[in-house]
Amino acid sequence: MARSRSVPVAILDDPDYFERPSETQAVLLGLVLIADDEGRGLAHVGFLGRKFNKETALIETALTDLESCGLLEIYEVGRHRYFWLTRWSDWQTLSKPTPSKYPAPPAADAPETPSQNVPEFPQNPQGNSGEFWETPPEGEEKVKGREDEGEGEETPPNVVPFPASTSSTAASTSEENLSVITAQVARTLKVPASAALAQVVQEFAPNATLSLTGEAMEAREYIDDPRRNHKRHTMSPGFFRRWLKRCYQSPPADQRPAPPATQASPTMRASPGKSLPSLMNLREQYQAVPAPPRVKEG
């Protein structure tokens, strides 16, 4: 939870705020204080009643009132109930917001659904009533057009027709695979399948040495293990990208080059049956040798 939150002074001139009862205004300010960096939080009346030291009936009435005037959105995901402050971006300016651990509201999560960006084709267009119309496979229309243009012309037996281009089909298939991989990685990481996560998957998917789902499982285990996660990192697309980048730059141990063998320095070896002479007391032996006689000149 953040140490501080800000509420603009202009909220005092907002009819959606000053026309609410004082108890409802107090509940709204409390929700601003306990919301995460994306303006979300738990909307269980018992939990909020203990937080704000108010009765659960008053909390329920305040939540309904705030939702009716558009300051709040209440939604349910699974067995839990959540709230989202609709004007959060107008009230708060955060430089490095922490991704929310709560699911996004349906309205905010709808643009990120890949299926909504795919146009739908009519199955029975106008002018063809009473007959079922199917979209021909890609490339079939072009082949059919060439057949119409070249009707009556036979292909020579020594000519092999070139197959239709499948680049666009491969591109659409790769986009579908990226969407499926993004959804699998999001479920493993326990984060929303956002556009930022899809960009991370698109960046590292071409690398055949990385298993995105496997790395997602290891990253999730690292986050959930307090003995390894000493700095209390939270899961986000940015953290997962740094995780994959580190794995990409650090090759597995079995693929690392072996260190060069060190060449042993030559050593003196004694002949079989003989030992090397000792160098101890070499100075005394040198001094004991008599000096040669001097020769007189002349």
Q: What overall form do the CA principal axes indicate?
A: elongated
CATH superfamily of the domain at 9-90 and 99-108: Winged helix-like DNA-binding domain superfamily/Winged helix DNA-binding domain
Question: In this structure, how is the largest beta sheet organized?
Answer: 3 strands, antiparallel
- Can you give the mean pLDDT? 75
Q: Order of strands in the sheet with the most strands? A: 1-3-2
Helix coverage percent: 40-55%
Question: Your description of this structure?
Answer:
The chain has 298 residues and is mainly alpha-helical. Among the domains are: 92 residues, Orthogonal Bundle (Arc Repressor Mutant, subunit A); 82 residues. Helix content is 41%, strand content 5%. It is built from twelve helices and three strands. It has a three-stranded antiparallel beta sheet with strand order 1-3-2. Helix 2 crosses helix 4, helix 8 crosses helix 9 and helix 9 runs parallel beside helix 11. The longest helix has 23 residues. It starts with 14 loop residues before the first helix and ends in a 10-residue tail after the last helix.
Quick recap:
With 298 residues, this protein is mostly helical. It has helices at 15-18, 22-34, 45-52, 56-68, 88-91, 106-109, 140-149, 167-189, 195-204, 212-224, 237-249, 282-288; strands at 40-42, 72-77, 80-85.
Please give a handful of descriptors for the protein shown.
Arc Repressor Mutant, subunit A, 5% strand, 298 residues, mainly alpha
Topology:
Elements: H1 15-18, H2 22-34, E1 40-42, H3 45-52, H4 56-68, E2 72-77, E3 80-85, H5 88-91, H6 106-109, H7 140-149, H8 167-189, H9 195-204, H10 212-224, H11 237-249, H12 282-288
